[in-house]
Amino acid sequence: MGIDIRKIDEIIERYDKSEESLLAILQDFQHTFRYVPEEGMKRVSEVLGVPESKIYGVGTFYKALSLKPVGRHTCKVCTGTACHLKGAHTLTDIIGKELGVEPGGTTKDGRFTLQTVNCVGACALAPVVMVDDEDYYEGSSPQDVLKNLRKYK
Amino acid sequence: MVNRKLQSVAALESYRAKIAESQKNEYPVIYVCGGTPCLAKGSSAVAEAFKKEIESQGLACKIELRHKVTGCQGFCSKGPVVSFGNDIVYLEVKPEHVPEIIEKTVKNGQVIESLGYKDPQTKKRSASFQGIPFYAHQKGMILKGLREIDPFEIDDYIARGGYASLAKAFSIDPDKIIDMITESGLRGRGGGGFPAGTKWRSCRAIDSEVRYVLCNGDEGDPGAFMDRSIMEGNPHAVIEGMIVGAWAVGAHHGYAYIRDEYPLAVKVMKKAVEDATAMGLLGKNILGTGFDFDIKITRGGGAFVCGESSALMRSIEGKVGEPRAKYIRSVEKGLYDLPTVLNNVETWANVPLIINNGPQWYRETGTEGSPGTKVFSLAGKAVNTGLVEVPMGTTIRELVEKVGGGIRSGRMFKAVQTGGPSGGCIPESLADLPIDFDSLSKAGSMMGSGGIIVMDEATCMVDVAKYFISFLAEESCGKCTPCRDGLPRMKQILTDITEGRGKEGDIELLEELCDVLSYGALCGLGSSAPNPVLSTIKYFREEYEAHIRDRRCPAGVCRNLVTFHIDADACTGCTLCAKQCPQACITGERKKAHVIDQSRCIKCGVCRDVCKFDAVRVE
Hints:
The complex is a heterodimer of chains A (153) and B (619). Chain A is of the alpha+beta class. Helix content of chain A is 44%, strand content 13%.
């Protein structure tokens, strides 16, 4: 997959040239490319003067970053305490069955990545599903969640 | 629109007077809740409907009638919430209610009781904050701002007395500010309850040219959303607190570290920092006093351990967020090994109140050892859930039964879990315990950042312990052995117990592992990890024993140990369970008893949860 090196530089340009900017740059890669590309890590290493090994360390430590492309949409099932008590795992199973993926997996057509996350802080909606970090769905009726997921193309 | 820098304290005061004058309304302002749960329940459509109705009636040009979207108004389970400054609050508001609200409440000051809260017992309605038990038993020192302020408008904050404490602080000697914080008894709201004044003083005492002030907004505890709501709803209160703190300790740079999972909080805080900088409340020469202070926003990377102070600092530096040993104090060697004060979001939001009203005023609320209020996110199986604020020392029972309205579906109140994965479970028998830092620690739990999860009789305590240990095992950074290897071992034992493979001696082995972990782990994540296990063993040992000896899960949760069946006498044949069953393995004719096909049942418990007649039995 070809990654536009100009886009990479554009992102790096937004920040101070210090190690402090590393996490933010990698997060912007994640948002733009839907993963942290190897070319990007190399470029960051050159510009910030941080060894590639350290960048790889940061890239694999934080859950918000992924070295493999994620789907066009991310479906995050919250497994926080309140959601756990109200059946988040059953909900994950049902969504996983519908999408044909395990948590952490991406659908073959690249439409969805299914993830379980710790807590999205919307406990009153428990069990809650968050799509693309924007849309929240109350999951007490799994069938309604599935209906909503079909809207994402 | 922010357009000019305020050059002095006097300029701030005259600007405030000017906005307050322009905000004077003949009609009450309509506050539409813009908290996440309300948004998910359609509050945007409600706000839009208000806008349209105001426009179509031509009210906007004739009279100054405003509606605005605020931060979380608290009553999440009954959202969308719409309120008016004058004590009226409507719940579960839909766009179709808007014309009636404009006509009756806004224009004529009438209360529409039918949009208020319906008491489940008495069936009486109330649309006043004082008449709704959920609100009546709270004390909104921190949350008041969330209910009234448009978080995207700095003017709105200033009009309500915002940045007054900063103006006041600049006229007080920094050492005196620290005295005030110490006298107020303010303790860190992030969990540990460390006295804020002591922390500030130690940092100030270190001889260094550079010091840092940090805000911990990495609210990682599952079941906690207080800090998120405060950042989203009243960001300037946090920023104002940080500037006062920076003035007191002599810091010129600050960082707010915010969870990546909270995109709205990041957006609101960024905007607030920009606006405050544009107004001359942050940056160089603040209010013409010659004092410099700036704040950078750092997004977290989705690692729970980064809520730990030393890991958070490493993460700000752009490194892997691993904690270090506790004997190195961050007030001496914190961010970039320089003196640093780190407080959590809610702690910072308390600072302006203390400076404005004085430490004695602050001490009037709460208990001797834990003054002030505490914001909690009340979640789980209570009837009313949401964001609540009560004085320290309120009992668990008051919180669950009065504010929370008791347990859903008339089930029995079994326990509360406080403090997230580092906290523990407190049984109903101890529910008269006052909630403060010291009482909760004594009971084997901890205050934590303020998540309160209410549990009913259908909650298995071994499963809860397994849940938290699995969480922590996943989140362990792997630096120290007790945590990296101890937690997976504990998880394995707990999994065995919940899946029917438990054996005699397992409980004792768990206790031993807990002991090693609490003494041997490097940071707070590991050393407090035993709490969920030890507290459930202490108060619910018989549940562990039932799993191990009788291969039975008394709460009916552990899938391998239970079967679900429908009591033919109690079943009315309403078909609700059959409709909701994800396996479609419940069959039966309408108005006749239904049956579960055991071969396909995945024991998810949905049927039991939806049944209105308590006909689903678990054995």
